[in-house]
Design a protein that fits this description.
Layout (H helix, E strand, L loop, with lengths): L2 H22 L4 H18 L1 H16 L1 H10 L4 H14 L8 H19 L21 H5 L8 H9 L1 E2 L2 E2 L11 H25 L6 H21 L5 H43 L13
Antiparallel strand pairs: 1-2
Helix pairs in contact: 1-2, 1-6, 2-11, 3-11, 4-5, 9-10, 9-11
Length: about 290
């Protein structure tokens, strides 16, 4: 269904794996994990500019909230008039409510593709045919190791299956690790903690919202989403946990830098406005000049 996403994602992962295979070797676990992290960073880096634009738009929208409240009070019984005046206010200040949807959709599709491609290295379980689908006839171990994973060939599939980190396979999970639990937990627990902490800090760095839906989403991001990361860490493969931890850490750092940038821009604008007001004000002891009628 999403082959148009899976094939390009697998091609990008192939390129990063070939690069990290030079110093580490094709079946090295660290090389594979670095390839996953590099792919996540590549996608997020390409979306930095749209993210900054969306953050600016949201900042302007928050500054317009008092004026929008006045419009609603002015026309309490005329929803159409409210919508027209609010849209005009948005156009006046360059606010695009749906301007951030395209980057969000692209990012969501890419990460869904990466999640599926990473899981598809091991198709011996029930959840092997798609992100939200299961099968009653999973592949045998032999068939799985001799079947390409989209544009990742048989050699790459076998290299991934042979790769180890702390002695654990990259497709292993803590709940299914058995005797390898300690080996799997060694990378998995730090990755889960990074994901949960970065998710929580990102929510704290997000400016408080007055809108009910946005405020609820922020509260969920503060506590529920980090708790979900802790729980899901027990059932997700190590390679997938690297993907989540890298994405969460990037989001947190990006949110911090964008907020600093926007705060600095707002301070500069406020300083210039204050300077203009002081320049226009009459000097002490000087009679104000009246404009001729």
């Amino acid at each position: 269904m999403l082959d148009v996403v899976y094939f390009p994602v697998s091609a990008a992962l192939w390129c990063w794996h070939r690069l990290f295979a030079l110093p580490f070797g094709p079946a090295d676990g660290l090389g594979w994990l670095l390839a996953v992290a590099a792919l996540v960073i590549t996608v997020r880096a390409l979306l930095v500019v749209p993210a900054v634009r969306q953050a600016r738009s949201q900042a302007v929208l928050r500054s317009l909230q008092p004026r929008m409240d006045k419009i609603r009070k002015k026309h309490p019984d005329d929803q159409r008039k409210q919508a027209e005046e609010i849209r005009a206010l948005h156009r006046e200040h360059g606010v695009r409510l749906f301007g951030g949807l395209v980057p969000m959709i692209v990012q969501g599709l890419v990460f869904l593709g990466l999640f599926h491609v990473l899981r598809s290295f091991d198709r011996t379980g029930a959840f092997a045919v798609g992100p939200f689908a299961s099968t009653g006839t999973p592949m045998s171990v032999e068939a799985n190791s001799t079947t390409p994973n989209y544009l990742l060939g048989i050699s790459e599939v076998q290299d991934f299956l042979d790769a180890r980190v702390f002695g654990a396979p990259l497709s292993a999970t803590m709940t299914g690790a058995g005797d390898l639990f300690v080996s799997v937990a060694a990378p998995a627990i730090p990755l889960v903690l990074i994901t949960a902490l970065a998710t929580h800090l990102t929510a704290r760095l997000t400016p408080p919202a007055q809108d009910g839906t946005a405020a609820l989403l922020r509260r969920l991001s503060l506590w529920v989403f980090p708790a979900g990361a802790l729980v899901s860490g027990a059932i997700l493969p190590v390679a997938v946990l690297v993907y989540f931890a890298t994405n969460a850490a990037w989001t947190c750092g990006q949110q911090y830098l964008i907020r600093r940038k926007l705060d600095a821009e707002a301070a500069t604008v406020a300083a210039k406005s204050g300077a203009r007001a002081r320049a226009a004000a009459p000097r002490p002891g000087v009679k104000p000049q009246r404009q001729p009628r």
